[in-house]
Fold 2-amino-4-hydroxy-6-hydroxymethyldihydropteridine pyrophosphokinase.
Amino acid sequence: MSQHKVVLLLGSNIGDQKKNIDTALDRISKDCLILKKSKYLTSDPVEFASSNIFCNIASIISTHLSPIQLLDYVKKIEIDMGRTTDSTISKVYTDRIIDIDIVKYDELEFTSERLKIPHKKHLFEREFSRILLKDFN
């Protein structure tokens, strides 16, 4: 099986945010190799109002999973950790215990109903994402 280089962004603004992110990364590392992690970065919520500040991290992983398999894998981690809403489905952003976004997958350009790669908002619009990803290019 071939390996793919993937950039993920993880965020949490409920509970022990760093622990939530570390738990998610630990779960990801069971089937994927974590190659690099950024520093943690705190930021205000984007595209919705909340008094809860986010903690975010970027990570580069190596995986044999296809884009959709990887999406299913990280969504299961989110649900298992207690995430109850999916903004892709609800079209509404809310506080969340964990959020795992696939930002890049090799140099693939991919669009489906559930997934768009690359994640252009993280690459070009969101300041916190650009800060986290600046050392990954």
Q: What stands out?
A: DSSP finds five helices and seven strands in the chain.
